[in-house]
Amino acid sequence: MMSLNPLRCLLLGGLVITAVLINSVALADEAPARLAVQADAQLDMVPDRARLSARLWERTPAVAAETDDTDPDALGQARDRLEQRAAELIRTLEEAGVARDDIHAGSLSVQPEYVAAPRNGGGDSETLQRTRIERPFQVRVDDLERLPLLLNALTTANVNAMDGIRYELSNRDAAVDEALVMALEKARHKAELMARTLGVTLGPVVAVNETHSPDYAPRMMAMSAGAREGTSQTEYRPGTITIEAGVSVSWAIEN
After folding, report:
1. What global pTM score does this model have?
2. What is the CA radius of gyration of the chain?
3. Which residues contact 179 (CB under 8 A, 6 or more apart)?
4. Cβ distance 254 to 202 under 8 Å?
5. Short-list 38, 29, 28, CA closest to 251
6. Residue 120: which residues within 8 A CB-CB, separation 6 or more?
7. How many CB atoms lie within 10 A of CB 152?
8. What pLDDT tens digit does each residue of the chain (255 aa) get?
9. SS3 category, 20
10. Under 8 Å CB-to-CB from 71, ≥6 apart: which residues?
11. 63, 74 in Cβ contact below 8 A?
């Protein structure tokens, strides 16, 4: 029996050590007390820049739809007319005070169009085909007070379509940063309010995440009939651009 005592002591000692280790791991795994909040912020900014969008196009003569290929001479003539009008448009805008770098001429697009010919004596109508060559233009406007003048310049150049105004912020990065700071400050305010109410003390920040990145989208405004005609009664009200940001922040609780 005496020979079993050392073995028994060894077993008992091992159990004690194991229990201590298990308890230590449990304490280590126990998460420290935290206070976590989420906050959203919305920033409304008045735009200070705009882009005018317009299009020019020319068409080839309509021919029978059964014709497989467009007449290359007719296509070339339509393109020449379009390029001449595009050059005139750029010249008109420059004369109105627009810098060449603020005028963006897009790529040519070519697409078929189908039209119905006048009905013949029997009441039948033939389908005709023509080709449309189009080129988009964008004009950047850094002074919104000049919008009416530039709109008149576009109508003077006889653009085929004016697609609207896109209002923007010249310093969008600073506005996005401000929205994010607002969200963080709001999170801090909420955490301090909760801590005072609960009678605890905030420790250092232990985690911070964006619940959604600051969202910036230019504001689009379609052209009214008066704007398309360039009438003096046209009013331009850009409104505001809204930037939203969201964060999630966790603080350690010290007591």
Report:
1. 0.69
2. 35
3. 41, 42, 43, 214, 243, 244, 245
4. yes
5. 38
6. 126
7. 17
8. 445 455 455 445 554 444 444 454 444 456 679 999 999 999 999 999 999 999 999 999 988 776 666 688 999 999 999 999 999 999 999 999 999 999 999 999 999 988 887 766 566 667 888 999 999 999 999 999 898 889 888 988 889 999 989 999 999 999 999 999 999 999 999 999 999 999 999 999 999 999 988 877 777 776 544 444 544 445 567 788 999 999 999 999 987
9. helix
10. 60, 61, 63
11. no
- Amino acid letter, 93: L
Residue type, 41: A
- 74 residue type, one letter: A
Altogether, the residues listed in the chain come to a count of: 255
Report residue 93 as tokens: 């805008």
Nearest-5° angle of CA 159, CA 164, CA 170? 115
Tokens linked to 81: 């007319």
Question: Closest Cα to residue 154, out of 97, 94, 93, 108?
Answer: 93
